[in-house]
Amino acid sequence: MAKNKTVFFCKECGAEASRWMGQCPSCHAWDTMVEAPEDKGRKAGISRLSKRECKPVSLKEVNMERESRTSTDMEELDRVLGGGIVRGSLVLVGGDPGIGKSTLLLQMCRNLSVKNESILYVSGEESLRQIKMRAVRIGEFSDSLKLLSETSLDDVIEAIYEMKPSLVVIDSIQTMVKADVESAPGSISQVREITSSLLRVAKEEEISIFIIGHVTKEGTVAGPRMLEHMVDTVLYFEGEQSSSYRILRGVKNRFGSTNEIGVFEMVGTGLREVLNPSEHMLMGMPDNEPGSTVTVTLEGTRPILVEVQALICKTIFNFPKRTAVGTDYNRINLLMAVMEKKLGPHLSECDAYINVAGGMRVTEPALDLGIVTAILSGYLKQEMPEKTAVFGEVGLTGEVRSVSQAMQRVREAAKLGYHRIIMPEANRKQMEELPKGIEIIGIGNIRELTSIFKTNK
Ligand code: TYD
Ligand code: MG
After folding, report:
1. Among 45, 118, 170, 349, which residue carries the largest CB count within 10 Å?
2. What is the CATH number of domain 280-456?
3. Which ligand sits closest to the CA of 110?
4. Environment class of residue 292 by beta-carbon count within 10 Å: exposed (0-12), middle (13-18) or buried (19+)?
């Protein structure tokens, strides 16, 4: 009897190898290779995406008409998708369980159902009653939205062919099962096979398909990351569980720019769009308190003001405790070391708790100067000068380096009433026309910050 052949896949990136390895040769992650049976039908399946004739064409013959897009009536979602849903595209929406993926997509279905688009919402996780309970909170739906509670992919595809909707939502890929793949639901081969089947349906029938994928921490279920190369668009829905703000981030988009974000707030009636995130991020910010700074970060093409808070107190332990919420822990340690060396405060004797308020996660280098000023302000117990925003990257010698899109950041700060901006000197030199009444303080090294605090006193 012929032996069933098995191959090894990396759980992180999906790379394939014929033997087990401790480290994935492709993404260099350790201990991520798992064994899975080779699927004989797979290669044949992927090779023909479309029924169209297989004939090479010249560039001149390619039709350049714009791809047709449907607006979701949610500005924040449209922006991340690159201006609406492209017909026949396959979109992956990933995120932690409970973050609001089902809610977001059901809400999108609602908006489109009101426009009488025919939609099929397939849930393998929830019963029809549970979906209804959620839908009641969201609002009115029209009858063009059909629900299906099903986990067998073959039945789902049959339903799609029968109904021929213009949009399908699969919630979630990890619960779907394809009968002719032997492994368990959520395993790498299942998830791959299902995605490639859905890809074929999307391209052949020109149906837009949204797939929900849970991001799992240590992977008994295959994560959405290994599907990224197969789909047209990858969106991640993220946010702190404790905060009601959610950020939808585009990490791949064949039909638009990536790195765009959409901001939402989870409320009792589903997700509410946050059209002016800066205002919301700064809501409830304390006035004139030491240890609090406003900084301008760039998310995609969009400048957003966020508050950085630092609580600095003398440590009672042998070595100081540091925490970072909403930013990178190692970056905090590095910046504190630079500050101690170049500015002189004895931070190695201090505990430091850093928080980017508002539930956003910022890892952009332009945040550095915000962190440094917040720490300094907390340490000196002196508040920042009034209505001041800061941004800039800080290097290891304490130099303040230029950042991208400085003008846009200044304009956003000015729009929210911040009239003094502390920023890299290198950027200040390039400034063209400034918004009225704005004072720019260009600095080349963090040493210059001390004089700002002194004059403030
Ligand atoms: P859900 O969309 O089920 O998350 P996911 O599909 O990503 O697992 O969202 C679940 C959370 O959202 C749950 O904690 C309840 C909350 N929620 C609201 O706060 N308001 C609402 O109107 C809805 C529908 C959900
Ligand atoms: Mg869900």
Report:
1. 170
2. 3.30.230.10
3. 1
4. buried
Q: Which residue is associated with the tokens 């280098």?
A: 365
pLDDT digits (tens, 9 = 90+) for 340-397: 999 988 998 999 999 998 778 888 999 999 999 999 999 999 999 999 999 999 999 9
Rounded CA-CA distance 120/55 in Å is 33
Give the number of other CB atoms < 10 A from CB of residue 22.
8
The Cβ of residue 429 has, within 10 Å, a number of other Cβ atoms equal to 9
User: Distance (Å, rounded) from C-alpha 307 to C-alpha 209?
Assistant: 38
Residue 45 has pLDDT above 50, yes or no: no
DSSP string, 243-301: SSEEEEEEEEETTS-SS-EEEEEEETTEEEE-S-HHHHHTTTPPSS-TTEEEEEEEETT
Distance 271 CA to ligand 2 centre (A): 14
Between the CA of 210 and the centroid of ligand 1 the distance, in Å, is 18
Dump pLDDT digits (tens) for 219-237: 444 566 678 888 999 998 8
Of 128, 201, 214, which Cα lies nearest the Cα of 162?
201
Span from the CA of 12 to the centroid of ligand 1 (angstroms):
27
What's the pLDDT tens digit per position in 117-154? 999 999 999 999 999 999 999 998 999 999 999 999 99
Amino acid at 284: G
Q: What is the pLDDT of residue 354?
A: 96
**Ligand 1 pocket at CB < 6 A:** 95, 97-103, 134, 137, 266, 268-270
- Ligand 1 pocket test: which of 92, 96, 103, 242 has the largest number of ligand atoms within 8 Å of its C-beta? 103
**CA separation for the pair 181, 39 (Å, rounded):** 7
What CATH fold (topology level) applies to the domain 69-275? Answer: Rossmann fold (3.40.50)
Respond yes or no on whether the N-terminal peptide bond of residue 118 is cis (omega within 30° of 0).
no
Is residue 51 pLDDT above 80, yes or no? no
User: What is the best residue among 174, 266, 272 to mutate for testing ligand 1's pocket, by most ligand atoms within 8 Å of CB?
Assistant: 266
